């Protein structure tokens, strides 16, 4: 284990940490607002505990040289695959999906950890591609690297998390010098796949019934306001009724009366938007934008390609989370079950973000080291 | 480049929020409000109906309806078996009700059981948590006197029709109750009040978590009727199970003291929801229980019409007052033989007008009619109130008919046959009246030609007073004549009341003539329309009672007279005692004939066909007395 010689606490990205702290605060406030006085009361305290654990984990990860971590990538990858298989075999089923295994008395969502492993594995893979241009061979290799865990996660089933792996590959490939012909072919394939998902005769064969229902309800939310389209519609009502100024903390009727689905987790932005209005949304999205820009800046300052790939992988994962989650909250995307980083309640998701930020710090701490 | 992607992404998301939170904010705010607020109507109790002394005739009883909240179809569907089980409603019926109301907005609950039993209420209360789609609606149901007492006057309420909803300017909604007939309909607006609204905040599973200020219901206005419960009671009992009608008026004010039409449906049977079978039965019943005979039965007045004839005679002097006619029991007019009602039994001999009214001699009035002519008859009949509505405050009053040359010209495009005048002169032929019209007619004539608009609401405003002034001598003579019918050995001699100037006129009209009757009598029982219109005192009466009894083989004085007598006696008994309460009345027990015979329908008096008089001579030759 090589420590970062000469790196002091000053070298941590305090701006990044401040932004994170602000986002976490919004999250805890809104979790409290969404759950106090209900059977879920006290959830914000559990979230605070996860945040505490996350910060500790982040500092630990930041101290271990990322080159050491990258060196262990194949082993981590194998562990990740094994864990995903284990989940499918012995995992704990909640909400109709096998995603959790018990660790230290808590249920951990393995796929969250696997996301991080894929970021590391891809960083290692792309860093080792020496040339300026990414060959088709390497692209396919990278695709297989992502494809295996993706299929396993889809099996759980967890479409949302599986989808997050895709931008990791895309962003990585771009940075690694993706050729435009390849980009065109894969874009076409992607478009065809999305088309297939939205085209019922085909989607019947590749999607689970609940997933198809989400797609249908996304396309026609008003058709069955209390059936499958209910969640999206209620979320939109919450957001829209918040208006510019919001209804105020604890006053969102959609939130407080439980009309917003899983208002403390996946739809927390909906609850926030209702109670804090457009001004609150502006503030929250501003923070996320600052977070992402700060990550990109860190990537640019990384000492080597591997560090850059690591940080950009984290940025891609978080950016995709924000995009898909928030778009869902305003009804612009189907329900996929992707949480909003650091605001949504959830142990595994929170841990993932802090582990990822730990990697970013790690890279940053070593930017001047040779 | 990555930075641009990030800024662009956040920008697009913000545009999405701007659209929802700024541009469409009002729409979503409304939806949010509709989500959280559930409005449950508070039904305003209808106003009660009291009698003239303040005794309750129609009031309300509390009841509960079971509401199904349909906002969440999946939740409803899930709970359907439990609801069917708990409330004892077949699941198919529930589904039918739901599909019938599919067009209504989903947030509007529907009534699935109008009359909840205690067991239903207990079930709903104990399953509030696991069946959140049921709600109790407190309603007040109409409570009418039992057994159809006064039911044509009170009318009944029912779910409002589409036309009523349209006409109400948004005040009525589907499922609301409104008056369908009688006073319930006439004074519906006043009686029904304004429904309130209980507004509660519900959470996403429909549980009530808070209350908003509710809008209280404004109860309907109580109305006091002119009906006297005691007289009404006597009228109902005295008419008994016979088909017929009773109207008692105070001619000085136009107030209706009693009003009965039998048979009468029991409106309590419709207070909740009338079954299709019951409704069909009522409509197809040959006795026509839904027909309010007091204002809708348009029948030949028979000999009661002779009062119109005599009044016209006294007033016009076209025919000298001292005219006498020899009655051998029959007479020949315009080449046809007309019979007097005593034909075959006896004859009246020489009669003047006084004796002709007393004995109800037809031959005298045939002669009078022939000499006076239809124009004068029509003028007086119409002037004294026949042929048009009295304007009573009840819906669906019929006008009856006074035939005239102008009428046959307009309706049949032909000339008036003089022979028709002969029939009309004894209240037969095309002339038809309602029991209410006859009460108003006799009361008005005895009051010197002053007719007050009959009404049932004690506080009714703008009661019109119609005048058809009669000479004092006319009033004197005609009231003498009618006094004689009861007290001078006339056709109502058996009705005399000690110490009361009980006067009146009887009438009997057969629906078909004797000859036709003989031909078909074996197959069918025919009802005579037996009339008696009586009043007291002799001049400026305080009460006039018109009774119609539709019974076979009885004459007016015999069948209808005792009912009039009972009511007038009760009126005076009550007046003498000056107290309220039950009055002992010597109710006559009526022989209702052989109960085995099927009841006959009330036939509206057939309109005289153009060739009628010539083709069926016997038709108009009916007995009058």
Describe this structure in words.
The complex is a heterodimer of chains A (370) and B (625). Chain A is mainly alpha-helical. Chain A has one domain. Chain A has helices at 14-35, 43-63, 66-71, 73-90, 110-128, 136-154, 159-175, 180-198, 200-206, 209-219, 230-242, 253-256, 268-300, 305-329, 347-365; strands spanning 92-94, 97-103, 106-109. In chain A, strands 1-2-3 form a three-stranded antiparallel beta sheet. In chain A, helix 1 packs antiparallel against helix 2 (43-63), helix 4 packs parallel to helix 6 (136-154) and helix 5 (110-128) packs parallel to helix 7. Chain A is globular. The mean pLDDT of chain A is 85. The longest helix of chain B has 22 residues, at 2-23. Chain B is of the alpha+beta class and 625 residues long. Chain B is elongated, with a radius of gyration of 32 Å. Chain B contains 25 helices and 21 strands. In chain B, strands 2, 3, 4, 5 and 10 form a five-stranded mixed beta sheet that branches. In chain B, strands 12-11-21-20-19 form a five-stranded antiparallel beta sheet, with helices on both faces. Chain B has a three-stranded antiparallel beta sheet with strand order 1-8-9. Chain B has two domains: 42-224, Penicillin-binding protein 2a (Domain 2) (Alpha-Beta Complex); 229-264 and 292-453 and 466-620, DD-peptidase/beta-lactamase superfamily (Beta-lactamase, 3-Layer(aba) Sandwich), CATH 3.40.710.10. Classes of the chains: A mainly alpha (370), B alpha+beta (625). At the A-B interface, helix 11, helix 13 and helix 14 of A face helix 1, helix 2 and helix 3 of B.
